[in-house]
Structures are given as structure tokens and as C-alpha cells.
């Protein structure tokens, strides 16, 4: 099992000292004889997954990808930009969504080209302390997550809905990174996916 993407998986720098990161928790939950490899890199964007794929172990059998959160974060300035009308704001968000979808589908095509069973993750909600910013971020993420969900449907891939997995304040080490508790929930969902098996050609949602 190889974890690709960003700090959702590569969260060792954010958990409390002495507590395990996602990949260590996953290793504890996988069946005997299985292994988990962390190829994800903190701060990565969708385009960086291509480099991570070059480092796949020769014995890799399954891939899980959590990518797109940092790309969405790069677009967060849009939330504070002035707009003359609701239509103008929606058109701007549509442009950002189309660019995101183009990049995400290109990344996903590269992953699927490896021919290995693959699961993908939605982008979970942040935990911004400012209520207005939090509400705007949640609304905007619907556009990005719609692209990811449609990608899962198009290819019949299992989908880990991180929005429904990390739901408590304690699941976050800071507004955008998972804590050890959040990581434990993510690892548990991945282990459940492994236990139930990757349904070929059919999307199942894990929460």
C-alpha cells in the first residue's frame, strides 16, 4: 500500500511528539505481511504526484492518493476578492474549478497508468478560527471536491471522503493538517478499504 499526495498522509511534522503519523498507524492496522510506504510529501500539489510515482516500490500493489488540498489553498485569495455581482463571483469560481479539474484528471491519469488498484480522497474541510472564512472555505471546496468525486465515478475508484472522516476539532493539529487522532481515523478508513477489497469498476465511499 503506497500513500501518495500531501500532508494529509505526510503529517509527522504536525503530530504531538511521541504520537504516530498516518503511515505508522496504517502499518499497525494492515493485515499481517502487508506493508505501507509513504511516498506523499508535505506541501505537494497535484503536479508533484508525478515525481512521487517515480519512487514507487517495485512490489507496490495498491495506491491511495490524497491530493488537491494545496492547489485549492493556492486559490484562497479568491475568497477575499471583490466582485460586482454574484454572477461575477460564480464565474470566477467556475474558472478556478475548471483549472483544478484539468490538473486533477491529468494527475489521476498518471496514477492509473501504473495499472494498480487505486483509491482517492476528497479534500477535507479546514478548521479556520474565523467563522466567516470557514463558511466560505467550505462552500468553495464543494467545487473542488465535485471534481474529485466525478473522477472517482468516471473510473470506478473507491473514494475516502475525508470530510466525513475528520469531523472533530481534535482531528486537526492546526487549521489544515491532521493530528494523531485525525490520522488514526484516516488510517482506519484505509485499512477498512483493504479489508473489504478494491471493488473493480465500482465506486464505494468510505467515511
Which CATH first-tier class would you pick?
Alpha Beta
**What overall form do the CA principal axes indicate?**
globular
- By CATH, the topology is Rossmann fold
The count of helical stretches stands at: 7
Tell me about the biggest sheet? 6 strands, parallel
Sequence of strands across the biggest β-sheet: 2-1-3-4-5-6
- Tally the beta strands: 6
Radius of gyration: 17 Å
Helix and strand element order: EHEHEHHEHEHHE
Under CATH, the homologous superfamily reads: SGNH hydrolase
Helix content: 40-55%
Q: How many structural domains are formed by the residues?
A: 1
Named at the architecture level, the CATH assignment is 3-Layer(aba) Sandwich
Uncertain parts: none
What structural class do you assign from the helix and strand content? alpha/beta
Q: Give the terminus-to-terminus CA distance.
A: 19 Å
Oligomeric category: single chain
Strand content: 5-15%
Mean pLDDT: 92
Amino acid at each position: 500500500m503506497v500513500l501518495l499526495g500531501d500532508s494529509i498522509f505526510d503529517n509527522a511534522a504536525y503530530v504531538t511528539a511521541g504520537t504516530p503519523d498516518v503511515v505508522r498507524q496504517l502499518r499497525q492496522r494492515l493485515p499481517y505481511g502487508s506493508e505501507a510506504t509513504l511516498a506523499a510529501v508535505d506541501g505537494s500539489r497535484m503536479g508533484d504526484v508525478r515525481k512521487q510515482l517515480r519512487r514507487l516500490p517495485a512490489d507496490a500493489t495498491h495506491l491511495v492518493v490524497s491530493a488537491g488540498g494545496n492547489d485549492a489553498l493556492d486559490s484562497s485569495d479568491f475568497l477575499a476578492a471583490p466582485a460586482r455581482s454574484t454572477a461575477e463571483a460564480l464565474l470566477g469560481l467556475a474558472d478556478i474549478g475548471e483549472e483544478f479539474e484539468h490538473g486533477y484528471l491529468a494527475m489521476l491519469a498518471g496514477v492509473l497508468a501504473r495499472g494498480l488498484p487505486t483509491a482517492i480522497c476528497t479534500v477535507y474541510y479546514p478548521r479556520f478560527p474565523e467563522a466567516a472564512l470557514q463558511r466560505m472555505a467550505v462552500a468553495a471546496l464543494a467545487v473542488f471536491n465535485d471534481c474529485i468525486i466525478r473522477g472517482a465515478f468516471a473510473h470506478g475508484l473507491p473514494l475516502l471522503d475525508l470530510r466525513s472522516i475528520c469531523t472533530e476539532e481534535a482531528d486537526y493539529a492546526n487549521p489544515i493538517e491532521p493530528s494523531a487522532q485525525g490520522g488514526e481515523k484516516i488510517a482506519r478508513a484505509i485499512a477498512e478499504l483493504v479489508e473489504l477489497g478494491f471493488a473493480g469498476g465500482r465506486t464505494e465511499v468510505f467515511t
